[in-house]
Amino acid sequence: MDELLAFECPRCRAQVQARFYGPCANCHDQLRRTQGSDAREVAVADYEPKMNVTPNAVATKD
Ligand SMILES: [Zn+2]
Predict the structure, then answer these.
(1) Spatial separation of the C-alpha atoms in residues 7 and 42, rounded to whole Å
(2) Domain for residue 59, yes or no?
(3) How many separate domains does the chain show?
(4) Is 30 within a domain?
(5) What's the gap in Å between 21 CA and the centre of ligand 1?
(6) Does a structural domain hold residue 60?
(7) 49: containing domain
(8) Which of 3, 10, 17, 51 has its CA 20 to 30 A from that of 57?
Protein backbone atom coordinates (compact mmCIF):
# COMPACT_ATOMS: atom_id res chain seq x y z
CA MET A 1 0.00 0.00 0.00
CA ASP A 2 2.87 2.32 0.79
CA GLU A 3 4.94 1.38 -2.21
CA LEU A 4 5.90 4.37 -4.32
CA LEU A 5 7.20 4.38 -7.82
CA ALA A 6 10.21 6.55 -8.58
CA PHE A 7 10.15 7.99 -12.07
CA GLU A 8 10.49 11.11 -14.18
CA CYS A 9 7.42 13.22 -14.66
CA PRO A 10 6.40 12.75 -18.31
CA ARG A 11 5.75 16.47 -18.63
CA CYS A 12 8.47 18.32 -16.75
CA ARG A 13 11.02 15.53 -16.23
CA ALA A 14 11.15 16.13 -12.53
CA GLN A 15 12.10 13.21 -10.33
CA VAL A 16 8.98 12.26 -8.45
CA GLN A 17 7.67 9.45 -6.33
CA ALA A 18 4.05 8.47 -6.55
CA ARG A 19 1.83 5.44 -6.31
CA PHE A 20 1.01 5.62 -10.01
CA TYR A 21 2.98 6.69 -13.05
CA GLY A 22 1.82 10.04 -14.37
CA PRO A 23 2.31 13.78 -14.14
CA CYS A 24 3.81 15.11 -10.93
CA ALA A 25 1.72 17.13 -8.49
CA ASN A 26 2.61 20.41 -10.19
CA CYS A 27 1.75 19.13 -13.64
CA HIS A 28 -1.39 17.46 -12.39
CA ASP A 29 -2.49 20.75 -10.94
CA GLN A 30 -1.70 22.53 -14.20
CA LEU A 31 -3.64 19.96 -16.18
CA ARG A 32 -6.64 20.41 -13.92
CA ARG A 33 -6.47 24.19 -14.15
CA THR A 34 -6.12 24.17 -17.91
CA GLN A 35 -8.98 21.80 -18.52
CA GLY A 36 -11.51 23.35 -20.84
CA SER A 37 -9.12 26.04 -22.01
CA ASP A 38 -6.94 26.33 -25.08
CA ALA A 39 -4.04 24.85 -23.17
CA ARG A 40 -5.89 21.58 -22.75
CA GLU A 41 -5.06 20.40 -26.24
CA VAL A 42 -1.37 20.99 -25.71
CA ALA A 43 -1.34 19.32 -22.33
CA VAL A 44 -3.22 16.25 -23.50
CA ALA A 45 -1.15 15.88 -26.64
CA ASP A 46 2.01 16.13 -24.64
CA TYR A 47 0.83 13.70 -22.02
CA GLU A 48 -0.58 10.82 -24.06
CA PRO A 49 -0.05 11.49 -27.77
CA LYS A 50 -1.09 8.06 -28.98
CA MET A 51 -3.96 7.15 -26.69
CA ASN A 52 -6.45 9.52 -28.26
CA VAL A 53 -5.58 9.06 -31.92
CA THR A 54 -7.35 5.87 -32.97
CA PRO A 55 -9.05 4.25 -29.99
CA ASN A 56 -11.47 2.36 -32.23
CA ALA A 57 -8.76 0.78 -34.32
CA VAL A 58 -7.18 -0.62 -31.21
CA ALA A 59 -10.45 -1.74 -29.68
CA THR A 60 -11.65 -3.60 -32.75
CA LYS A 61 -8.41 -5.41 -33.41
CA ASP A 62 -9.32 -8.51 -31.41
ZN1 LIG B 1 5.72 17.46 -13.80
Answers:
(1) 22
(2) no
(3) 1
(4) yes
(5) 11
(6) no
(7) 5-53
(8) 10
For the chain, the residue count is: 62
pTM attached to this predicted model? 0.48
Span from the CA of 60 to the centroid of ligand 1 (angstroms): 33
> Does 58 fall in a domain?
no
Gyration radius of the chain's alpha carbons: 14
pLDDT tens by residue, the chain, 62 residues: 678 999 999 999 999 999 999 999 999 999 889 885 555 555 555 666 565 666 666 667 66
The torsion angles phi and psi of 40, rounded to 5 degrees, stand at: -60, -45
SS3 assignment, position 40: helix
**3-class SS at 11?**
coil
Name the residue type at position 44: V
